[in-house]
Predict the structure.
Amino acid sequence: MDDNLKKWLPWIAVAAVALIVIVVIAVNSGGDDEAATTTTAGTETTTSAGDTTTTAAPDETTTTAAPDEKPEAGPLGAVEVAPGEEIQIRSLQAITGDVAFLGIPNLRGTELAIADYGQIKGHSVGLGTPLDDLCLAEGGAAAGQTIASDEKVIGTIGTSCSGAAVPASKLISESGGVLISPSNTSPSLTSDLVGNAGNDYNPGYYRTAHNDLYQGAAMAEFVFNELGFTTAAAIHDGDPYTDGLATAFKNAYEALGGEVVVYTAVGKEDTDMTGVLTEVAAASPQALFFPIFPPAGNNIAIQSKTVDGFDSIQLIAADGLLVDNFMELKESEGMYFSGPNLDYGSNASEIGTTAADFLAAYDAAYGEAPTASFWAHSYDATVLLLSAIDEVSVELSDGTLFIDRQALRDQLTATSSFGGIIGTLSCDAFGDCGAQRVSVVLHTDSTDIAAGKTNNVFEFSPNG
Amino acid sequence: MTTTAQSPARTFKFSWTDSFLWAIRVMAIFVIVWGFVGAIALGVEGNGLSLEAWKQLFIAGVANGSMYGLLALGYSMVYGVLGFINFAHGEVFMVGAIVGFYAANALFDAGIWESNFILSILIVLVVAMASSTLTAVLIEKIAYRPLRDAPRLIPLITSIGISFFIQNAVALLVGPAVKTYPAVPTWLSDPINVFGFRVPGTVVLVLVLALISMVGLWLFVERSTTGRAMRAVAEDKEIAALMGINVDKVIVTTFAVGGAMAGVAALLWALMFRGVSFIIGFLPGIKAFTAAVLGGIGNLVGAMLGGILLGLFEGLGPNIVLRGLSWQIPVAFAVVLLIVGLAAVIGGHNTKRTGVVVLGAAAVLMAITGFAGFTIVIPGLSQLKDVVAFTALILVLIFKPAGLFGERLSKEDRA
């Protein structure tokens, strides 16, 4: 008996494991068939318990419930939210690692906006588990895949970093979804502002952050006209945001008549900057623009003090370094930073929140001030999404909420004069919805970071 | 009638691998010589870096290199004694740097950092060395000792696992954000004039500390009894055991000494770069391993010098070699090169001197690029410093597989 048992034991173990796996899968997918049915872009037909059939491509919809009740689903399909269920949106931000300073306030902005907006036609809005974009293409791809494969998600607020948005916007766009970013600024994600789509533009992508072509132009004007410098150097780190911004600066600066004497890159994790700093010092620019992130930015600032020739070079960075863990370094004093204009004054969101209201609520909920500059953009992006859902969703007689994906995109694209904390939002054909207000701040005291972030010395608002 | 004896016809076997290796040798010499000459020519023309800039890069290279050298010692010693590469050594260095940060921060908060800097640095040095040593010894006891008799591949894979484990454990414990050491006081960071080089005092301190550690280690290994025991165990473990040496104790000492060197390297890193995080052990670990191989694995002097050389390749390489590639070889020079090159190829082939043939081929290639007016302009040279460093390793190994100073393997490995 023992010998027989020994012989079959491995197979018994395998069978047990397989049984457990099957049971787990069955239990988890059981939940999906319950109440909500979704149809995806043109390929599937699903039936729900309520006997309604919808076919994707052809024109007809037949229901056995009240006739002409459910509207026809557009080419991207629709999301149906059953009575009592939450409308699912997602947050995709950089919430861990070195760039968490940027992503966490964005996530919290979304959470506060959901709380403030309240219900949409009797349904609450659910955020689910916040997803992490890691500020890398890999993170954006992985999270984008998760969102794209979840048919109940109607829209996503994210990403934090442009590098992550490149794969994420493609995946989400292909599955019919909508992605609104509060802090992506790379021009390649939308357009070149004169009618040509960017290389990474995908329909369904929008953003409330400014387009870096404006930020580059703002910085170029500041350096050339305000500071009066005719030579500059630029360093990026290879990702779409930094490369896009450095290129925008270079083009705008050269158009004004300046000369970019050194244009080079470092790796995001590089520690020894002596080589690149020596190269820059050798060309004697009057300013060095390095719109990158920590820790590379920290290393450049710290080591520039030890490289000969840097005493006369003005260091300038952008919003990637407008974060506490850079600005508390003594070496960051005296630097200029470009970034979104945080002077919101008495702007109010479409639902009435002002910047002061938001900051008070943020402090009450999280016990600190936001650690990066795009909290208002995130709040406005969420409110924009929720109000667009509110507009296009149709409540059926049984309480189901029917949200057509294409209609949602059309509604967002048609946004015009929408009130936001950041200013008035109007979307162009390629998803740039932001108020496009960029400013340059001067940071003088490493012990008073809040003052440094709001010390505007130059403002650039091409849209007035 | 006698005929002059002819050398027997050599059977020439054409092998793709051999041809490929020869082609690489030729290309390597071609690129390096063109780059080097080009860099000098550009400097003469005034388009290159200034002498000051070169000096700065040189000193930075030596400083970085000393750090790699100290880390490489750990790799070399463990390989000499146990015969496998301890990939977790980079993490041993990282732990020293992180624990040192907390010590430095505490000293800074207490005001001692600024008032008595020498004492603070000594304290941080001791703390870093102690934590690195402790980590190394713990790793040996927990992960490697149970595998003492296993085939070499097993502890190697374990070391990769331990490396990831420590990285993530530290990330969880202290968080992933970069921690910055307090700034060094200005009287130290101000530039000093040493031997005609104008260097920040911090770099001088780094070089002095590295030199003292390396000399100390060398004396320890060559002159002391424990050192002799270590060399005996490295030579042949079984005979050493028979001679009455406690092999286990010697191995622990090896790891401990390697850890101590890593602790010193951690302090040097802190002085030079100030920012530490859980990931800083990874790339320096790989580079230090590279340096150990470059100098000859198992060879301590080789490890030290290999480290410094690697640092120099990294610092100077992009500017010496890659920048020079943008220099167009003048046609007159190209003509000379063509003539000399062809002569070398033919002459070397006739006298069966392959080295001369290779040089000649490289000269001909340079001549061709000169006639074609071809240049290679690389934007953002400094990005490629890692490429240069690792390419240097590959080239050294192609030309001299045992490393620059020769390997020192144990009896089992040599057989």
Q: What stands out?
A: The first helix of chain B runs from residue 16 to 45. The longest strand of chain B covers residues 191-194. Chain B has 17 helices and four strands. The mean pLDDT of chain B is 87.
